[in-house]
Hints:
Helix content: 55-70%
Oligomer: single chain
Number of helices: 21
Strand content: 5-15%
Structural class: alpha+beta
CATH class of the largest domain: Mainly Alpha
Shape: elongated
CATH architecture of the largest domain: Up-down Bundle
CATH topology of the largest domain: Multidrug efflux transporter AcrB transmembrane fold
Number of domains: 4
Distance between the termini: 22 Å
Radius of gyration: 30 Å
Amino acid sequence: MTRKKVTALAGLPSGRRSKYAMLVFWLVLVAAAGPLALKLTEVQDNDALGALPASAEASRAVQRAQEAFPDSQKPLAVAVYVREAGLTDADRAKVDADRAAFSRYADGGQVSPPVPSEDGQALLLSFPVAGDAGQRADAVGGIKERLTTDTPANLRTALTGPAGGEDDVFDAFAGMDTALLLATAGTVALLLLVTYRSPVLWLIPLVTVALANQLASAVVYLLAKHAGLAVDFQSQSILTVLVFGVGVDYALLLIARYREELRRHADRHAAMAVALRRSIGAIGASAATVALGLLCLLAAQLPSTRGLGPVGAVGIVAALLAMTTLLPAVLVIFGRWLFWPFVPRYSPDAVGLDVAAEHGVWRRIAGFVGRRPRAVWLGTAAALVALSFGMVNLSIGMPHDKAFTKEVGSVTGQRMIEAHYPRGSASPAEILAAAGPAGQVVAAARTVPGVAEVGEPEVSPDGRWVRIAAVLADTPDSDAALATVERLREAVHAVPGAQALVGGDTAYLIDEERTVDRDNRTVVPLVLAVVLVILVLLLRALVAPLLLLASVVLSYAAALGAAGLILDAMGYPHLFVGIPLQTFLFLVALGVDYTIFLSTRAREEAARLGHRNGVLHALAVTGGVITSAGVVLAATFGALSVLPLVPSVQTAVIISVGVLLDTFLVRSLLVPALALHLGRRTWWPGALARPAHRPVAAPPPERVPAT
């Protein structure tokens, strides 16, 4: 975009008349978007959270089962009854009464007889729950109530199985969208109040980013309703956090530049025009980096990861539009008094004033970096490498009973079953095969080490297929069970003409791990390439972008290591398989944000003051605002920890720690020290790297006539 076009765009929200037109435009836009934003939960499809690609064997097994056994695809409810001292006649009478009561909820109206454990201490009732999602929710509520009615003393009961787990997820997230929004908005409001020390100013960016969130939610709703965009609770939660965090970052950068210009211009309209023109390049590059990085997730195969990309990108674009159009217009409309009690006054002496003099703390930090740049970057890099060793505390793969931050009935029931039945009883592997060689398939399955029991084949209504349950000897999500299913697949695949597929929970975990590995190998290089291209175009150099990219990758490794220490102490060291890729994307894209803010200002100042003075000046004048932005973003992502799922807590910890490391170490010490150590070569092959380049003697003030 040419300088003339940038000037024209900057004049729209800062013009004497156009500022009101911009405000009216946004009021109309939000009035239309508000009702649509409220409907976003109506188009959520949370099945995508647990879905695999259609090509995965577990997915193909589910598809075949749905086609061959259409009347038996309802989620299974498993009621478990346990008395450690041995079941009594009263206990058995309770089970029989419950079985009769449960028949009203069962698909087909029948509940199979209870299955006793070998130790005589437990009984199981299992049956598919009839109805659609709403009817099943009511049914599971009735089942849970019945389990606690007329229960003999000391008899333990619980509901587990897919139906119980589904209900626990719904219960855990009841009202969580509101809680997350309030936690995010409250965190941002507090930090803005502390940052600006003004009883009024903090409201403007907060209200603006809330309106941006409404716009983003409305657009996502329309895309989900009419364009097939997949939206789930995870992506909606990330959308809220992204819009608030990134939007407030852009607001902090723009307002800081606007405050500078208010001292240089008597007319606030001219001050905003200069501030917007000088900051829109960095803000736009930041938004492009994050949005395009998110769109790289479209190359992933895991549906929950792939769906997050476009949803997040919509949020970034909405934040960019609001903070570069609505926010400037509102700031100019209200005038200087918004900054009360620290109102920036115009002074003719401030036209050529070095604003670094007003940033005492960061001026001293810049002086420290400038005195010994080599020691600073080596020491900072060593500290980040040392932190990265904390990754040894983490492992990939989250057991099902570790997914919630609190105890839920389905997890309790699963543990009760594992204590009294073969560990794989609650989640057997499911073999789908052709009916002809069914006997050979059963025989092959029984020879597999780790398979405790193989059931009799259940023939489909059309007689073409059979379904065979294979109970594993080990806990379904253990390494031993995963190895058993791998052997089971090899054995049944080898049966001629069987067309056998192995599904079930353990098979799902195997295919999920393979899918995530493939996504990591594809998406990570793509994200790095996109970020590198944006940095090269922005800085018109090659060395600086490579340094910045290397710094954020090192920062990610350190963040994962530091988070490993924290998560291990919290008792959550087993990462959900999608966490490493998602957090990598956010930390690389968002981490580059702060280096973009610093490096664009450094390039601007180096052209006037020379390389060394330009880098130090940029560090001094951007240090406060970028640090505030980093703290806001870290705290905003920290709001994800209010959600009752361990993956959400893990995401909150990793990203918050990573953003803080990037803010206080990478952007403040490592990057400027490296730039000083390399000298003008940092900007190679651009003009700033050439010895012939000479900076101007003094920073020329930019004067804009009143509009």
